[in-house]
Amino acid sequence: MRKNRSAFSNYNMVRMREALRYFSPEKLRLFLKIPFYLHINSGRYPGFVNSRTQAYGIWRFEQSGFYREAALNNLFPKSIIETCRVKKPAILGLYHIGSLGTFTQSEGSDFDFWVMIDKKKFSRARYEDLEKKLDAIVSHCRDACDQKVSFFIMDQKEIQTNHYLPFQGEETLVAPKLFLKEEFYRTFLMIAGKIPLWAVLPFQLQQDSSMKTQALIRQILADNDDLIDLGLIRSIPLADILKGLLWHICKSKSDPVKALIKATMIFSVGFSRHGSSRLLCDQIRQGYSKAGIDDYRVDPYKALFDRILKFHETEDPAGVNLIKNAVFYRLCGYPQVKIPGVNSPKRLLLDTYIRKWKLNKSQVKKLLSYKDWSESEKLVLERSFVSRLTQMVEYARKKIGKIDHSIDESEKRNWTLLTNKTKERLNRANHKIEACSCFLKRQHFTRLTIAHGSSGFTLDLQTREGEEISRIHRHPKLLGLFGWVLENQLYRRQQAEFKFNSPLHLFESTSTPISPDHLYLKFVPLKPLSDDLFEKEAAWSKMVVMLYYDEQTLTAGEFLISNSWGEYYLDEAVFKGDEPIQDKCRKLVRKMKMYSDEGTRIYICQLATMHDPKIVYRIKKAYTDNESPNHALTMRKKPYLDRL
Asked: Which stretch of DSSP H or E encloses residue 479?
């Protein structure tokens, strides 16, 4: 145990040094201060909660390196440093999980902390006060330092048995639980508090589940009050393998490179024919004592990359080039691709792979020029990553067969959520508006301009840095282009302006033209605010009907429809040249009913030189005339008719 403690201390120190070296001075000060904000409760500092529940304090924080660093660098006044002892601390342990201290750390890396508590010692009021404290710190980090910080409150007993429950209520986390714990053990940084037992327990005891071993572990915990049992991982059920693959298909929407790498690791654990199913966290733990400063060979992601590369080389050579591309881009900070700094551990590993893969200069140059690729080229690469993810899921489903969903209600619910979110991610149905590249989605735009020309509509963008991107997307229909902006959330209302350049005007219920922003507000929120909406099949939620006019003649109708899952669809009603207005309105109504569910909100807009004040009445009349006794929705139940 003493040897293992020393090895863990060495490894944590090496990882922490790697994390700190990449911070800017401002981010470094913030990272060092955050544990102190959690430990104290002073009105002078972020995280203050005016309450008597004492929802603050980290177990033996005064013995941590963060306390010593704060004292050494005068980050807080002596009056705080010397009087910060807390008798009954709320937090048993504070740990960072994720990319910090690894090759994948970047300037934009989030701070993700696990806050470990003993829920039995928390009243509802104390738990809520802890949440308020964490929320206040998150807001401070975002507003004052432009740093995204997340805190995850975890109960020690529930984590030990792989449950991730809120203080009260049902579990909502849909991530594969054992792989979440495996990632925690593989990547965590010890900040302060108690040391996870897993990190120092002899390996042979971890693998033995006998009663004698369990008694020995209980004795170790009793003799070492600075250890905390967060549970061991002895095996991974095949159901969790499939759940992990589905989870990463959903996560691929924001980063397909990261999702493919993690999913391939999960796939190799469950379906390797020749290799070992040994968990990466166990492999990394056995290398704790060998960790050295600037030694890229002990990085957690080095072990991950080597695992998936070896898996493909030996068992699926056809997919190895795609995995090499993913590893290359993960090391280069996809989607903002740039080569790592000279002599950095990340660069040394990348150079090693380039030599091993025998990439020539032109190949490397092409990969590094990703930012200059066309939007269509970027999408081809992303779709190849997602296609590979889909292949792994299909293979896993065939091997696993039918999964018993009757384990318990929370698990059944999570399966439903995950299945429906995956369905939404892979949906390529007709009329559905498709996503843009992750590179474009990650940009911040200060101006969006829709231009109307003879060939349709085009979108011009201006980035926060002042770069002009012309004609990034085009569509023959206004709502086709507008829906693409909504689907990809390119318009951040508080940070950008949205312009419409056209000889025609947008109208709604009055003769005063409206702006694209006015149209945008009809679809807010653009995406589901909660996973709860994925418990049920998607239902139509909002619809804009755009009527096109040539002079005073209605020439076309198009429809932009969103559903409860946040998907956007485009459709149109086609008119004949000499068709009577009544027939046109009936066609519009038939299409409206195709995309209507209980509670669907519908808005009528016009694109014309002059406002048509009669069209809404005509559509309403056509709706009434078209109503049938068998139609499930009556006029009275249509809330949008009041709006009309």
From this structure: helix 478-487
Provide the terminal-to-terminal Cα distance of the chain, rounded to the nearest Å.
74
Q: What is this structure's pTM?
A: 0.87
**The tokens 């600075």 sit on which residue?**
226
Question: 91 - beta bridge partners?
Answer: 58
Query: Looking at residue 641, what DSSP letter applies?
Result: H
The number of residues making up the chain comes to: 644
Angle, in degrees to the nearest 10, between helices 238-251 and 256-271 = 170
CA distance 435 to 443: 14
> pLDDT band at residue 638, thresholds of 50, 70 and 90?
very low
* Residue of 324, 207, 314, 307 lying closest to 266 (CA atoms): 307
Joined together, the tokens standing for residue 633 give 């929705």
Pairing of strands 189-193, 497-501: unpaired
d(CA 421, CA 399): 22
Positive or negative, the CA dihedral 128, 134, 137, 141 is: negative
Nearest to 101 by CA among 337, 312, 300, 322: 300
Range name among 182-196, 261-275, 391-405, 521-535 with the lowest pLDDT average? 391-405
Q: For the segment 250-263, what is each residue's pLDDT rounded down to a tens digit?
A: 999 999 999 999 99
Distance between CA atoms of residues 640 and 12, nearest Å: 59
Q: What residue type is assigned to position 291 of the chain?
A: A
> Distance between CA 173 and CA 248 in Å, rounded?
14
Amino acid at 363: Q
